[in-house]
Amino acid sequence: MRLVVNYQHLQTADIDDLGSLVSESFNAPDDIARPWIERSGVPNWRVVKDSTSLLGGLMVIPMGQWFGGRAVPMTGLAGVVVSPRARGRGVGKRLIGQTLEEIRDSGVALSALYASTTSFYRHCGYERAGAAYQVELNLKELTARSGPLEVRTLEAEDSERVEALQHDWVQDHACLKRGPYLWHRVRNPKGQAAEQFGFFSGDRLEGYVLWKRSEHKGLDNELQITDLVLTTPAAQESFWGYLAGHRAFFSKAQWLCPSSSPWLLALDEPWNYKMSMHEHWMLRLVDLQKAFTERGYPAGPPCEIHFEVEDPLLSNNNGRWLLRVGECEGRLTTGGEGLIKTDIGALASLYSGFLSATQLSVTGRLEGPVEQLALADGTFRGEPRLCDFF
Ligand SMILES: CC(C)(COP(=O)(O)OP(=O)(O)OC[C@H]1O[C@@H](n2cnc3c(N)ncnc32)[C@H](O)[C@@H]1OP(=O)(O)O)[C@@H](O)C(=O)NCCC(=O)NCCS
């Protein structure tokens, strides 16, 4: 039976009920959920209720995402939950649907998330658009000596320049333009304050590393890196020296990274580190016109790509669209010949550069003449390098 639900902002009186739902659904300890909801900001939570009780909720995280050198406004979703007593009755889909409408009406073009259940989000128009990888490094074999830069503890007054360094350097395709939620996460992993060190040349910050200790395991501890930025060869050399200095009591270092990383070129042998896929992330094009117009594009001759898009949830995206690209900019207008036919999810995989139009045509979710596919392949090329977890 379909339930009648109301979508609304979380009220203070409902925090405990939402906390219980989160604990029950994610099998999280009771004392974690409420502080998490409060820390992430009660105004960032949305809930659905019927006439008597709270049935579900989620968190919205305002951020941006870099595409083609420009930051496109993006709202991340996390903590999506529906009461086990109301599941399988369309509540989750309506919660996401109404959140997407709110995101669109607020002028934000994109939404992204890490999914526990791909098929549920696929029903809501999200699709896989990239993946975060995990590096695990064998520290006992690291022989690097201390590098040329001074390693100093980062203090609260360094926060601004740390954030500025990260903002200026991490603008690769699909990377996040972080907001306060992400910064809090990397500085306080699992509620524990991270160790924070900067690599300095005089007073100039050239890189930094934030990390969390694992539980004590004798000589076999793990250094869990939550954030790492190295902007110069000297910062890189200093980072390796700093890590090697831990090898007596720490056997491993771990961090999330894109599928390739220039820093790893410093390691000689394949057994020095292991790389595995951590998790896919999914992207939703919420407002097609804004999403295609606010991003940047690779340099190349001007071109026109004709789409016909099907979006069962957000009708503003349905229909024929003409994308004109030139001088690294794009303009999307309604109309055109609808030569490339696709659904809103497959278009998200194309948009991020995760799959090309030609590759998507093999899945049956995108079709069009080869000339148009080739133009789309070139226009949306770029490896999606988002690896921040949220
Ligand atoms: C995932 C969750 C939010 C779905 O909520 P829900 O109200 O049961 O979902 P809906 O009834 O709206 O389902 C919408 C569609 O997704 C599908 N779906 C829902 N949950 C699914 C699952 N776990 N696996 C596969 N498909 C699923 C449904 O079959 C339905 O398809 P249909 O439209 O063809 O019938 C809910 O199961 C939940 O809270 N799970 C535990 C917490 C969790 O995993 N949250 C996600 C964190 S990223």
Question: What is the terminal-to-terminal distance?
Answer: 33 Å
Provide the succession of SSEs: EHHEEEHEHEEHEHEEEHEEHEEEEHHEH
The fraction of residues assigned to DSSP E strands is 25-35%
Estimated radius of gyration: 23 Å
Total count of helical runs of at least 4 residues: 11
Largest sheet entry: 13 strands, mixed
Which regions contain 5 or more consecutive residues with pLDDT less than 50? none
Number of strands: 18
Shape assignment: globular
Mean pLDDT, all residues = 96
Report the helical percentage: 25-40%
Class derived from helix and strand content: alpha+beta
Query: Which distinct ligands sit in these coordinates?
Result: coenzyme A
SSE layout:
Blueprint: E1 6-9, H1 15-26, H2 30-39, E2 45-49, E3 54-67, E4 70-82, H3 91-105, E5 110-114, H4 118-123, E6 127-138, E7 150-153, H5 159-169, E8 176-177, H6 180-187, E9 195-201, E10 204-213, E11 221-230, H7 233-244, E12 250-257, E13 273-285, H8 288-294, E14 303-310, E15 319-326, E16 329-334, E17 340-343, H9 344-352, H10 357-363, E18 366-367, H11 370-379
Parallel strand pairs: 4-5, 11-12, 14-17
Antiparallel strand pairs: 1-2, 2-3, 3-4, 3-8, 5-13, 6-12, 6-13, 7-9, 9-10, 10-11, 14-15, 15-16, 17-18
Helix pairs in contact: 1-2
The structure holds coenzyme A (COA).
